[in-house]
Amino acid sequence: MTRYCAFFASINVGGNRLTMADLRYAFEREEFENVETVVTSGNVLFDFDERPTDGLEDLFAHMMLDRFDMSTFAAVRNAGEVRSAVEDNPFTGIGQDHYVHTLFLERDADQSAFDKLVANHAGRGPEKIAMGPRCLYIDYVDGAGHSKLTNAFIERRLGCRGTARNVRSLARIAAKMA
């Protein structure tokens, strides 16, 4: 069995209210093992046979729509990928941990789309952005809450969805997955 984490977008924000107990129960009904939630923002740890994560992402999107009438995206990563989201983030240890994020994407970003994102954001704020495997690394410098570098801004330019977590949360999740 492989240990995974599903990072759900837009859970318990913007009207998408869901208890973690209900989310755990939905995973258990789908026969995932050792299901555990971490904080209330839709991080679900579980064990399952090793397989490509994009199939799991599709399954969870369908499960959320069917069981909770929520249209959402889930980025699924294994323990090594979660650890890498902290360790490979070039801003970890430089910026403040609660301002440094990894934005998990549904697929690898296209280099030209990433270049367009960087160019379109130039002069809009102090944020720093780097590309990683199926993710972006972002240092929000002054905080994500006041930034013009929003998920919607990023998603429009990259043409794919994503969900972000700060490296403090990711380190906590990685430790629980170990």
Automatic annotation (TrEMBL):
It holds the Pfam family DUF1697. It comes from the Bacteria. InterPro entries: DUF1697. PANTHER family: BLL4334 PROTEIN, DUF1697 DOMAIN-CONTAINING PROTEIN. This is DUF1697 domain-containing protein. It comes from Novosphingobium resinovorum.
